[in-house]
Write a structure and sequence with these properties.
With 133 residues, the chain is α+β, with helices and mostly antiparallel strands. Helix content is 23%, strand content 32%. It has helices spanning 2-20, 93-99, 115-118, and strands at residues 24-27, 37-40, 47-54, 61-64, 74-79, 87-92, 101-105, 108-113. The radius of gyration is 15 Å and the shape is globular. The chain starts with a helix and ends in a 15-residue tail after the last helix.
């Protein structure tokens, strides 16, 4: 249950930050395949599918069993999501895939994005990477 609360805290923090910057934000259904939220400009000429990953503390971000299942072009990772001062890192899907770690054990694959790979200055609170609505 705590994991769900962390996910919600991160998702709604991202929605707030995007809204403050002029985006119209719509969260998707929980556990839907693909984007966790969509950010759109007022005229809907720009629509950004965004994957939100929230962490209660500094950890690696699990990416699943295959990088082919990553769909959203934008990824926003929120650390300290349950705190009064969460921090966001904005990456492209290409950047996530390029930095992903991999492990195979007993024929099972798992991928993750380590904190050292997403916690870079160029990604920190880099909301301008998304463009202007």
């Amino acid at each position: 249950m705590r994991h769900q609360l962390t996910g919600n805290a991160g998702l709604y923090h991202v929605a707030r930050e995007l809204s403050r910057r002029g985006w119209h934000v719509m969260p998707t259904m929980r556990n839907a395949r693909g984007a966790d939220l969509y950010a759109a400009s007022s005229d809907e000429k720009m629509v950004l599918p965004i994957q939100s990953k929230a962490l209660a503390k500094l950890n690696a971000v699990p990416l699943g069993k295959s990088l082919d299942s990553l769909l959203s072009p934008w990824w926003i990772i929120t650390i300290n999501a349950n705190s009064s001062s969460p921090a966001c890192y904005i990456l492209t899907k290409r950047e996530v895939k390029a930095a992903a770690g991999h492990r195979e054990k007993d024929g099972n694959h798992s991928y993750w994005l380590s904190a050292r790979d997403f916690m870079k200055e160029k990604y920190a609170e880099a909301w301008d990477r998304l463009g202007s609505p």
